TrEMBL record:
Gene Ontology molecular function, alphabetical: exonuclease activity
Signal sequence range: none
Top-rank taxon, per record: Bacteria
InterPro entries assigned to the protein according to its UniProt record, in alphabetical order: DNase_TatD-rel_CS (IPR018228), Metal_Hydrolase (IPR032466), TatD-like (IPR001130), TatD-type_Hydrolase (IPR050891), TatD/YcfH-like (IPR015991)
Keywords of this entry: Exonuclease, Hydrolase, Metal-binding, Nuclease
Official protein name in the record: YchF/TatD family DNA exonuclease
PANTHER family documented for this protein: DEOXYRIBONUCLEASE TATDN1, TATD FAMILY DEOXYRIBONUCLEASE
């Protein structure tokens, strides 16, 4: 029996999972990766994630939010739709929300407006925030700081930032999500050092599937698609960096995720 691990970020409603979604969930469970937290990134996607998660009570949960890439499509009804989704028992966080100045798929002022609206919603509902930040640290922190006393909990998902950025997030009480980026010998080297600076009770692990397939998998998927069954590989990479066994990392991150998302 594989150690239980929780994948806190799976884009399971992505089109690449259209043909075999149920099998992906089953493969993950076979590897001990359960429950999964499905990431909501826009209105329709958040609705689909909540609907799909409802089919697997206790095994799948979902977040409800608008990714900065999709902020340009928000309407006057968006926050009300997220509030409705947030009332469902399987929806455990607001997000993925934040700022992304790397791609600028949505204008920056629009990103900021809808990010702040979602932060306010999470504060109102006292729900965790599932956060995204890319090349926007200063504005991201500037927007969050006024809410510091009201934010229930927050995780910076797929953290790939600097020592300074990590220290700021930790000082604000945020949790940190680590992905297979740490397995990339080209881009992830600095993460291998930084992960040691994250208190283990603030660390969670995720695949961000179907993206960020670990580059050092011994058997690579033919289509290059990442999936939650690969989370133990990421846990092993984290364990090697922090001087723990994979089982210890599994135990600690699982307990942290259960507490963070208030999973029964």
């Amino acid at each position: 029996m594989n150690k239980q691990m929780i994948d806190i970020g799976v884009n399971l409603m992505h089109r690449s999972f259209q043909q075999d979604r149920d099998k992906v969930v089953a493969r993950a469970a076979e590897e001990g990766v359960s429950p999964l937290i499905l990431t909501g990134t826009h209105e329709r996607n958040s609705e689909e994630a909540a609907r799909y998660a409802a089919r697997f009570p206790g095994k799948l949960y979902a977040t409800a939010g608008i990714h900065p890439h999709d902020a340009r499509n928000c309407t006057a009804h968006t926050i009300e739709k997220l509030r409705r989704l947030a009332s469902l028992p399987q929806v455990v966080a607001i997000g993925e929300c934040g700022l992304d100045y790397n791609r600028d798929f949505s204008p920056r002022d629009v990103q900021k407006k809808w990010f702040e609206e979602q932060v306010q919603l999470a504060c109102e509902l006292q729900m965790p925030l599932f956060l995204h930040e890319r090349e926007a640290h200063s504005d991201f922190i500037g927007l969050l700081k006024p809410y510091a006393g009201r934010i229930h909990k927050a995780v910076v998902h797929c953290f790939t930032g600097s020592t300074h950025e990590l220290q700021v997030y930790l000082s604000m009480g945020f949790y940190i999500g680590i992905t297979g980026w740490i397995c990339d010998e080209r881009r992830g080297k600095h993460l291998r050092d930084l992960v040691r600076k994250i208190p283990l009770n603030r660390l969670m692990i995720e695949t961000d599937a179907p993206f960020l397939t670990p580059r050092d998998l011994s058997v690579k998927p033919k289509d290059g698609r990442n999936e939650p069954a690969f989370l133990p590989h990421i846990a092993q990479a984290v364990a090697a960096c922090v001087g723990k066994t994979r089982e210890e990392v599994a135990d600690i991150t699982t307990e942290t995720a259960k507490d963070f998302f208030e999973l029964k």
